[in-house]
Amino acid sequence: MKRKLTLTICFVAVAAALAGCGGSSASDTSYMAKSEAAPVAAAEEAAVDFSDDLYDYDYAGEEAAVEEPEVTAGSSDVESVSDSEIMRSSNRKLIKTVNMSAETREFDKFIDNITDKIESLGGYAESTDISGNSYDTYSERTAYIVARIPADKLDRFVTGVEEASNITNKNESVEDVTLQYADVEAHKESLKIEQARLNELLEQADTLENIIELENRLTEVRYEIESYESRLRMMRNAVQYSTVHLNVREVKEYSPDPVEEKSFGQRLVEEFTDSCETAWETIQDFVIGFISFLPILFVLLIILFVVFIIVFGIVKAIIAIVKKSNSKSAAKRAAKMNPAVKAPMQKDNAAPQTDTSAENK
Predict the structure, then answer these.
(1) Which of these, 33, 45, 130, 253, could form a disulfide with 80 (CB 3.0-4.6 Å)?
(2) Which 8-state DSSP code applies to residue 142?
């Protein structure tokens, strides 16, 4: 019984795969043609023959009631749609990407205008990165913006950027994903058919092994359906919202347009002039930096002077203590070396004392 149920599930999966894979091959001329119905029906009938003794259920009648999805070009007939007809359809899926490099002399104003423009057109900034303009020194600022703009308003946004800045580089690319979208959608629909069929089999299952096997396959089918739906959502988003990669650089002067090749003298004069301007800007930056550093330099000099006074006082005190200690040591050494000098002094001091005692008597 388990073997027969397994064969039934396999035939259902094969039938669904045949229905979905019909649109993925580049050599096929249709996604869901009527000519494919015969092999699919044969496979389903074979599955019914193997499972007739499992349940008292008319599988052939139910499978005949399940209608396969049709991919049409807008008409109500059941004719299949070829790849060329899909490509000629007005409902084509185009993913547009624009890369732009711009220069501006009013950086803050330009960034604010770009942000307002994105919001007014119904788009959004996917990422924004601004760098440069440090506090200590002047540096040219740059910005990198990834904007998502509604596809029908992309030209208005690009024109607005071109009018508000100097464009140094620009390229556009278009990717047609019409066939990929139809292929993924066909696979998803075929999996839904298989899911409905498995649910019907699950309702008729009467053993635990059959229920577990059917539920495992249902879980796989649901996961595949969610994966295809996620891919469809991503493609729809990419089609509805075009992507613009915008590099912005702050400059003092716009880059000149390409001109004819210059002579040696013209190039020499221009290079010398540029070098002089660079040297003058360097001198200005040095003077400005030095003047701005003077308050800090004054504070540092005061700190160094105070430290010098403290260190000088400490050294002077240490020298005085050392000298005093050395003088005491020298006196002690002199006393030890000449004891006779001390004896007469003691005798002289003793004589008056003797005389005084005699007088007292």
Answers:
(1) 33
(2) E
Tell me, yes or no, whether 30 lies in a domain: yes
Do strands 94-104 and 241-250 pair parallel, antiparallel, or not at all (unpaired)? parallel
Instruction: Quickly count helices (H) and strands (E) in the chain.
Output: 10, 5
What's this model's pTM, rounded to 2 decimal places?
0.52
What is the distance of C-alpha 173 from the center of its chain?
22
Cα dihedral 42, 47, 48, 49 in deg (nearest 10): 90
pLDDT tens column, 117-131: 999 999 999 999 998
**Joined tokens for residue 270:** 């221009």
Encoded tokens for 319:
């020298």
**Inside any domain, residue 127:** no
7 is a domain residue: yes
225 with 192: CB under 8 angstroms?
yes
Task: Give me the domain span that covers residue 13.
Answer: 2-88+193-216
| Polymer length in residues for the chain | 361
pLDDT at 359: 47
User: Which amino acid is residue 344, in one-letter code?
Assistant: P
